[in-house]
Design a protein that fits this description.
Helix content: 55-70%
CATH class of the largest domain: Mainly Alpha
Structural class: mainly alpha
Number of domains: 2
CATH architecture of the largest domain: Up-down Bundle
Largest sheet: none
Strand content: under 5%
CATH topology of the largest domain: Rhopdopsin 7-helix transmembrane proteins
Distance between the termini: 37 Å
Length: 495
């Protein structure tokens, strides 16, 4: 959680808590507002908004096949059914008698919602398991059961101990409210960090829905029946589901697809979260580079992916990771300024051609600096050819004077260059390339970035041999062109 998220959480909890505390201490400012008609209207609105989200996510889940949106749809169905039942069982509505279900249903609705969101936010390995189909079927059957149960209670609110408390009902109620509050707190924090990574509307809406539901729990537990402090929980729920429904409708209106509306909620890979919603300017620039230099089509994406995973290993903030990902994707955008006959030359470069190649970080920096939405990408673009020992370009920076995004992309860029086929040589074997990256730690590359990279490789089953650095081999094979004919000493580079 960053400062903004913490302030949002405090605001959504402290303000309701203070209001309830003051209302309990000074009953005069917590007047009675007993209106069964208004109550029915509000809970019907909450149910309608919940059903909107449920329907869209359910249709998307049927097409996508992943379980996360199924869980969210299930939670929204539970809220919609039970809150509608809560309104219909209000004593006096359609002649309904006094009953206990009017108080039970919102507690059960919020509990089901909290559990569903918690299940949806886990790393969903179940999507690939044999039990995924059974789980979807089970959730559908359970949702249908909730609907049938709610209808039966709405018809006769006295059934299932509706007129007599069950043993320990008060304790059970507060246990459910407390457990739900903890789940909603954690779920909101997860979605906040996902929103910081991808800037997806639905993620921010789920933050508001989760934390406003926490405020609703507080009001439900301590508010006085039919007083303003009790009505507050309806308002908090209405606001939370209004935000979720707005995000779904706005997302669909913008993308014209269900994927665009709610697709982010099915994504668990943080790298995919970062990559999903990038500025239009980024895609336009990438398209221009790929037309000019087809080599960058796969290279840019792979460097961006690896750089982002290194950044997560180094525990960078979501905002920093987002800017790094953009910069890694665009690190070769300056090739737009390199003549085609130089860029696509298969043989050795002469001094003048090499100088044109060396200018691409500066050209890329100047080009991208015109797009305000890509400010976070600039350091990676300009500094990905700087080297730890100061032998790089364009600014000959050394060690920690090199911005961290440039140091990260330098490792990812060289790795992808070494392990990719080129016109003048085949790709290196992975173990050889890995050993050379390790050997360059402290001379060409930031040791901390190399260690993070090696940690990622170890998770893939690759272990580096700590060999001495083959500088000549890296200078030749770590670049886009065979530069062996150039007499000047040049840094290891990937162009």
């Amino acid at each position: 959680m960053d400062r903004r998220g913490s302030l949002l959480l405090v605001g959504l909890l402290v303000i309701p808590g203070v209001l309830i505390g003051v209302a309990r201490a000074v009953p005069a400012i917590d007047p009675v507002l007993e209106s069964v008609v208004l109550h029915l209207y509000i809970v019907s609105a909450i149910a309608a908004l919940a059903f909107i989200v449920a329907i869209v996510t359910a249709v998307f889940a049927a097409r996508d096949g992943r379980l996360a949106p199924v869980w969210i749809a299930f939670g929204c169905v539970a809220v919609g059914c039970m809150m509608l039942g809560h309104g219909v069982t209000t004593p006096g509505v359609f002649g309904r008698p006094m009953n206990l279900w009017i108080a039970r249903l919102p507690v059960l609705a919020l509990t089901a919602f909290a559990i569903s969101l918690a299940c949806a936010t886990r790393i969903d390995r179940a999507d690939r398991s044999r039990n995924a189909g059974r789980m979807r079927t089970g959730l559908m059957i359970t949702g249908a059961g909730i609907f049938v149960m709610t209808v039966a209670i709405a018809v006769d609110p006295t059934i299932l101990s509706g007129s007599v408390p069950v043993w320990g009902e008060g304790t059970i109620k507060f246990a459910l409210l407390g457990a739900s509050a903890v789940l909603l707190l954690l779920v909101g924090a997860v979605h906040w960090n996902r929103w910081r990574l991808g800037r997806e509307r639905i993620e921010l809406a789920l933050v508001l829905a989760s934390w406003l539901a926490m405020a609703a729990l507080l009001s439900l537990a301590y508010g006085q029946l039919w007083r303003v402090s009790w009505w507050d929980y309806h308002v908090y729920l209405l606001a939370g589901f209004l935000a979720a429904a707005w995000a779904v409708v706005a997302g669909y209106g913008e993308a014209r697809t269900l994927q665009g509306a709610v697709g982010a909620m099915a994504v668990h890979d943080p790298v995919e979260q970062v990559a999903r919603r990038q500025p239009d300017a980024l895609h336009a620039l990438i398209a221009a580079v790929e037309v000019k230099d087809p080599y960058t089509h796969g290279h840019s994406a792979r460097v961006a992916d690896l750089s982002t995973r290194i950044a997560f290993t180094l525990s960078l903030s979501p905002e920093a990771v987002r800017g790094l990902h953009q910069g890694a994707f665009l690190h070769d955008v300056g090739k737009i300024g390199v003549p085609d006959h130089v860029l696509n030359k298969e043989g050795s470069l002469n001094d003048d051609e090499w100088e044109l190649i060396r200018r691409h970080p500066e050209v890329g920096w100047e080009l991208v600096s015109r797009a305000d939405s890509l400010r976070g990408a600039l350091s990676a673009i300009r500094n990905h050819h700087e080297r730890w020992d100061g032998s790089g370009y364009p600014d000959r920076l050394a060690q920690r004077d090199i911005p961290l995004p440039g140091r990260i992309v330098a490792v990812a860029d060289v790795w992808d260059a070494l392990t990719s086929d080129r016109a003048y040589r085949p790709a290196w074997a992975l173990d050889r390339a890995l050993s050379h990256i390790a050997a360059g730690s402290g001379s060409l590359f930031d040791p901390e970035c190399v260690e993070a990279f090696l940690h990622l490789m170890e998770r893939e089953g690759l272990m580096a041999e700590r060999t001495s650095l083959d500088q000549a081999a890296l200078e030749k094979d770590g670049a886009c062109h065979d530069e062996s004919s150039i007499p000047a000493v040049r840094p290891t580079a990937t162009h």
